[in-house]
Amino acid sequence: QTQKMRREKVREAIKFAYEQYELYAFGEDELKPISTKVHTMFGKMGVTLVDSQIAGLTDPYKRAREWIANQLSFDRNIQVSVFETNIRYLGGLLAAYTFTGDDVMVKKSVDLAERLLKAYTTTTGLPSPRINLKTGQKGFHPWAGKKSILAEIGTMQMEFAYLSEITNDPKYMKQTFDSIKYMRQKKQKGGLYHSFISSNSGSPSGIFAVGGLADSFYEYLLKVWLLTGKTEPMFRDMYFESADSIAKHLVRKTNPNGLTYIGEMRGNSFKSRMEHLTCFAGGMFALGSIHHEDKEKAKKHLDIGAGVGEFCYQMYHRTKTGLSAESVTVGGAADFITKPGQGSQYLLRPEAVETLFILYRLTNDTKYQDKGWEIFEAIEKYSRVAHGYTGVKGIDSSKQVQDDVMQSWFLAETLKYLYLLFTPHTTLPLDK
Q1: CA–CA gap between residue 25 and residue 399 (Å, rounded)
Q2: pLDDT, position 56
Q3: Which of 1, 293, 294, 410 could serve as a FRET partner for 112 with CA atoms 20 to 30 Å apart?
């Protein structure tokens, strides 16, 4: 009964957040829930609408489907992030097709994928970070120089493999899988990869990390292997190589309390820092552990997953608001500190609750549900406003400032993982 009540509360939050988006920003990218204005991030292509694909809300889905069918066009003379457009738009459209079987989602997916594929016309076959959807002109992120980013190279394969499956056209899968084959030559320290690589020369640079710039490269290695029914051994081998290397080089424990965290390295120099983005790795290690043939390593990986999950929960639990910072500096008697400034803001992110969801499903330990509920209550208290949910700055100070942006991932991921945390194991089972 408790879990049912919690599930219904989260469902109400999903319904409320999406209703406010529909009311004030329908067809726009994101809602500014305090000013009820729109936040344009992706050229006014309705990112919240496509990315979230409403959890079982029939009428909102019908209205969204109508807009996608008749209003959404990718024939736009704008340059977009290949990675962001893939995960938010192609991922959203394919998720909608999975649950509805609606061919309009496939048609839009194919149109978008054809445009994104043009990013792969480089000397290495690695995708250029940006592409003009209309002209196919490639570009780079101004802040990254003429380099591609590890996470962006490795976060295309699930969507494109699934598109190949449902269209019976292997080209989408082949193009994105070939880029991973190329990357395998670049591994360091047994299975780590630099955060930057030139898509033209193939020269790597940057740090070794599991947070921003790197995160979903490692996550997709595991999930692509599982998504393809374990038929792609390259992804399996690369995942376990990487997981072992992360465990060896980047996983540490705090002193004196022994909390498990994942830091970063530049060359051989270690930095004791943990990002909220890294929190997905708790779920990754746990999920990978049940597919490991070596029982001893499987237990070690599950322990790392649970340890990272606990660290990330503490990133919420120990602040004045109960919301997590973007990053913490590890060290000292308190294990870690949140420094004032940019790192001390909460952006409605999903990584910690995804890990809690996976850990609950794999262990059946209800403590993970309780931790997730505590996080949800903090979100309700500090992020919920009259017309949606907002990020919060100054999460560990006596006075907070709300940033007035309802990120699309909050509906697409954060609230969905919280909802699933309180559902029976038969709802989207992890072994299927």
Answers
A1: 29
A2: 66
A3: 410
